[in-house]
Design goal:
It is a single chain. The protein is α+β, with helices and mostly antiparallel strands. The protein has two domains: 116 residues, Serine Threonine Protein Phosphatase 5, Tetratricopeptide repeat; 263 residues, Porin (Beta Barrel). The chain is built from seven helices and 16 strands. It has a 14-stranded antiparallel beta barrel. The chain is elongated, with a radius of gyration of 27 Å.
Length: 401
C-alpha cells in the first residue's frame, strides 16, 4: 500500500513547490533516490505537510532507508485522518526489518484509526498471515541506574531504615510466568538493588508462587500462594509466606473494579527478628480508561502484628495514578499516594507518608522500552528520628520476554 500522495493546497515558497513537483515526477519515473532527495529539499525549504512526510516515508522505504521511513510515517500518524495509513506502512517497515511482532503491533492499531474498509482488510490480512501459537510463558526484565539523595530502606512498608546520605545505585529485576494446566499458573522473580558506597542497603530478593483462576458470572477470580526471601548486604533479612485471593470485573466498558486480600506470615532474620509476625492486607482498585488516558484509584488497609511492638501498626493508604499515551511511542505516568500509620507502640506514635512519582517511557520496539522515573518521598512522623524527605531518579530499559 505504498504510493505517492499529491500535495494539499497550502501556501509555500515557489522553490519548495518546485522541489515537490520534481520529486513527484522522479517518483513516478521510478527514481526513488532522486525523489527522496527532492522531497527532503522541499521540507528544508519550509514545506511541512502530512502529504510531504508521507511521500518522504514512501521514498525512503523504496530505497531501503527504513529508519527515515519510520520517522516520516510517525510524523504522518499525528494527523488523525491519515493515522491508519501511517500505522499500516509502519507495519510494512517492521516487516522489512524482520520484526513481525513489531509489525503486528502497528497493524493491530489500524482498525481503530480509520474507517477505510480496504485498509482495515489489508491490516487484518497481515495479522492473519502471521498468527502463531500462544506462548507458553511470558516474562519481564528491566535494568536501571540512578541517584538517591537520602537512601532509605523500605521493605514492604514494615520497617524503615535511614542513611541520611546520598548514593548512586544500579537495579535489575526479572519476572517469569508460565501456565500449568488450564487454570493454574506458576510465577517467579528476582530483584537486585546495589548501591555504590552504602553496601548495608544493598538488597536481593527471590520470590515464587502459584495461582488458580476461575470464573463466576462476570467475575474473574484468583487464589494463590507466594514465597519470598530477601537479603540485605548479603545477609538474610526475611522469609515471607503469603496466601491471597482476588477478584475483578468490568463495571462498564471503560471501568474495571478489583479487590484483593492477602495474609502474610513473616520470619525476620538476624537483627530483624522483630519483624517476625503476621500481616493482613485488604485493597480495592478502580481503573478508568478515557480516550488516551488511563486512571487508577486505590485504597489499601494493612494490619501488622509483629514480635517487636514498635513495628506493629495499622495503616491506611490512598493512591491515584494517571497514564497518558502521546506522540505514538511516548507514555507519561504520574502517581501519588498518602499513607497514614498508627503504631501500636505509643513511643512511635503516628506517621504520614506522601509519595509522588513521575515517569516518561519511550517505546523502542515491540518488546523494548526506555524510561526515566522520578520519585519524591516525605515522611512526617511523631518520632522525629523517622522524619525525612528523599528524591530518587532512575533511567534504564525494560523488555517483555
Amino acid at each position: 500500500m505504498l504510493f505517492i500522495c499529491s500535495g494539499p493546497a497550502y501556501s509555500h515558497t515557489e522553490e519548495a513547490t518546485q522541489q515537490f513537483r520534481s520529486a513527484s515526477a522522479a517518483f513516478q519515473a521510478g527514481d526513488y533516490q532522486r525523489a527522496l532527495t527532492a522531497f527532503e529539499s522541499a521540507l528544508a525549504q519550509g514545506m511541512s505537510t502530512p502529504a510531504l512526510h508521507f511521500n518522504i516515508g514512501v521514498s525512503a522505504f523504496r530505497v531501503g532507508n527504513y529508519a527515515r521511513a519510520e520517522t516520516a510515517f510517525k510524523e504522518v500518524a499525528n494527523t488523525p485522518s491519515m493515522a491508519g495509513l501511517a500505522y499500516y506502512n509502519l507495519g510494512l517497515v517492521e516487516l522489512k526489518r524482520n520484526d513481525p511482532a513489531a509489525a503486528n503491533r502497528w497493524f493491530s492499531r489500524v482498525e481503530g484509526a480509520t474507517e477505510d474498509a480496504r485498509l482495515r482488510q489489508l491490516a487484518a490480512a497481515q495479522l492473519g498471515d502471521r498468527q502463531s501459537p500462544a506462548r507458553k510463558w511470558v516474562g519481564f526484565a528491566g535494568f536501571g541506574v540512578g541517584h538517591d539523595d537520602n537512601v532509605a530502606l523500605v521493605s514492604n512498608s514494615d520497617v524503615l531504615g535511614l542513611s541520611g546520605k546520598a548514593d548512586n545505585f544500579a537495579e535489575a529485576h526479572l519476572s517469569l510466568s508460565t501456565p500449568l494446566g488450564a487454570d493454574w499458573r506458576l510465577d517467579g522473580g528476582a530483584v537486585l538493588v546495589d548501591y555504590q558506597e552504602l553496601d548495608s542497603f544493598d538488597q536481593f530478593g527471590l520470590q515464587a508462587g502459584a495461582r488458580y483462576r476461575w470464573f463466576f458470572e462476570d467475575w474473574v477470580n484468583d487464589a494463590g500462594v507466594q514465597l519470598a526471601y530477601t537479603t540485605l548486604d548479603g545477609s538474610g533479612f526475611e522469609n515471607r509466606r503469603a496466601l491471597f485471593i482476588q477478584t475483578g470485573r468490568d463495571l462498564r466498558d471503560d471501568l474495571y473494579l478489583r479487590g484483593r486480600y492477602r495474609f502474610s506470615d513473616i520470619d525476620g532474620l538476624n537483627e530483624f527478628r522483630g519483624l517476625t509476625g503476621r500481616r493482613h492486607e485488604l485493597s480495592a482498585t478502580l481503573d478508568w480508561t478515557h480516550a488516551d488516558w488511563d486512571f487508577g484509584f486505590g485504597y489499601r488497609f494493612e494490619l501488622g502484628d509483629y514480635d517487636d511492638a514498635s513495628l506493629s501498626a495499622t495503616r491506611h493508604v490512598m493512591s491515584v495514578e494517571a497514564e497518558y499515551d502521546f506522540a505514538i511511542d511516548w507514555t507519561l505516568l504520574a502517581e501519588a499516594s498518602r499513607r497514614h500509620s498508627d503504631y501500636d507502640s505509643g513511643a512511635n506514635g503516628k506517621e504520614r507518608r506522601t509519595e509522588l512519582g513521575l515517569a516518561l517511557t519511550r517505546t523502542l520496539s515491540s518488546r523494548w522500552q526506555a524510561f526515566v522515573r522520578y520519585e519524591y518521598t516525605n515522611n512526617d512522623a511523631d518520632a522525629v528520628e523517622y522524619e525525612y524527605t528523599g528524591n530518587r531518579i532512575t533511567a534504564g530499559v525494560e523488555a517483555t520476554l
